[in-house]
Amino acid sequence: MAVDAKARALKAAGRPVIGFGVGEPDFPTPGYIVAAAQRACAELRMQKYSPAAGLPELREAIAAKTARDSGYHVAAGQVLVTNGGKQAVYQAFATLIDPGDEVLLPTPYWTTYPEAIALAGGTPVPVLTDEHSGYLTSVADLEAHRTERTKVLLFVSPSNPTGAVYPPELVAEIGRWAAASGLWVITDEIYEHLVYGDARFSSIPVAAPEISDRCVVVNGVAKTYAMTGWRVGWMIGPPDVVKAAADLQSHLTSNVCNVAQAGALAAVTGDLSAVAEMRTAFDRRRLTMTKMLNEIPGVSCPLPEGAFYCYPSVKGVLGKEIGGRRADSTAELAEIVLEQADVAVVPGEAFGTPGYFRLSCALGDADLEEGLTRLAVLLAQAS
Questions:
Q1: In this structure, are strands 320-322 and 346-347 parallel, antiparallel, or unpaired?
Q2: Is the same domain home to 192 and 142?
Q3: Radius of gyration, CA atoms only, the chain
Q4: Per the domain annotation, does 289 fall within a domain?
Q5: Hey, what's the torsion of the CAs at 51, 63, 233, 19, to 10 degrees?
Q6: Where are the beta strands (DSSP E) in 33-163?
Q7: Tally of structural domains, the chain
Q8: Are both 280 and 265 inside the same structural domain?
Q9: Mean local confidence (pLDDT), 121-144
Q10: How far is residue 170 CA from its own chain's centroid?
Q11: Taking a C-beta distance cutoff of 8 angstroms, is the pair 185, 235 a contact?
Q12: Rounded to two decimals, what is the model's pTM?
């Protein structure tokens, strides 16, 4: 978001900046969702306080949607509606983590994860992955980082920033290992519907039922329904965990905006045609982006199987001079790219892995190709 803010500022100053930074669909929220929110504005009950844990009908609908989409059957009382997926992540760690607890964090990671862990008093333990493994971790890697202080595994598939999708058999293996090790699992499923090709989304408490009583699922409407600004997410977990998180939320924020909840209710009870349209566009763009990135000398990018990001290694460009400046880090390289090519990307330092860029596919096809062409022309000057 910081990269996007800088890009917007340069655009406002008249620069022809193309931004690959922000992680939100470039589609409008479907009209039927907007209409439901508009109707809710006129309802007296929606103008008043509502239960901190969420509108009862929305909690019921989220439970039904979860069973429909992932095969995970939960009761409405196991659902807590939050102000976006980010609050769900924060509250999951705040509820489960005590000072000194360790959390296994497959890396690259979304920037909020280590901060939420640290705010709860925990210690993030990065478990490094790279392009050679397709950004997938393994039970052996996780076990090598487990100590007597390890309490939680954070599991994310599809992944932000890499677009990696874990195959169902590996999801099951990791879930069984976590259960046998006595760990909790917090799993972020926000990109569940954005998978491509032969990849298949698999929910870890479904693939490994033995972890279900020690698992918290985080999700929301932001990516599936192009509702990033509506700020409606949820966490699903054992009743005692959800009650504790709801108690925290009652003091932290009270209820999520009722009008936004009404929109979310329309979203999760509707069909998935809107996400199907977005998925088709993102699929086309990820193929174009991966191809164009891999044609740049010094750049290597696995084909992402989910989400809407590419995460190329640019290590082959580092240490070289570009346009009169030497780039010794991806943070410096991203500055050069923005200043000299008017292209905004997010450096890998933000995700725990220097040497990489994250580029979002969530922009128009013409801008995507123009931005990547500019990037290729600039990086071709590296010497």
A1: unpaired
A2: yes
A3: 21
A4: yes
A5: -160
A6: 79-82, 102-107, 123-128, 150-156
A7: 2
A8: no
A9: 97
A10: 20
A11: no
A12: 0.95
Residue 74 lies inside a defined structural domain of this protein? yes
Name which of 13-22, 42-51, 144-153, 291-300 the model is least confident about: 13-22
Four-residue CA torsion sign, 154, 159, 164, 168: positive
Residue 28 lies in a domain: no
Residue 111 structure tokens:
């920037």
CB atoms within 10 A of CB 180: 11
Bin 298: left if φ > 0, else alpha if -120 < ψ < 50, else beta: left
What tens digit of pLDDT does each residue of 7-26 get?
888 888 999 999 998 888 99
Q: Would you call 317 helix, strand, or coil by DSSP?
A: coil
Residue 250: pLDDT over 80 = yes
The candidate with the shortest Cα–Cα distance to 314, out of 331, 305, 324, is 331
In the numeric block, which tokens belong to residue 127?
Answer: 């478990």
129: in domain: yes
Its domain, for residue 302, covers 2-23+274-379
Q: Are residues 79 and 185 in the same domain?
A: yes
* CATH number of the domain residue 101 falls in: 3.40.640.10
Backbone phi, psi, residue 300, to 5°: -135, 125
Cβ distance 360 to 194 under 8 Å?
Answer: no
| Residue whose token pair is 């959800």 | 242
Distance CA 54, CA 38 (A): 19
Handedness of CA 279, 284, 287, 293 (dihedral sign): negative
C-beta separation of 83 from 233 below 8 A: yes
Whether residues 190 and 246 fall in one domain: yes
CA distances from 282 to 168, 209, 305, 311, 375 (A): 22, 32, 11, 15, 20
Please check whether residues 47 and 148 belong to one and the same domain: yes
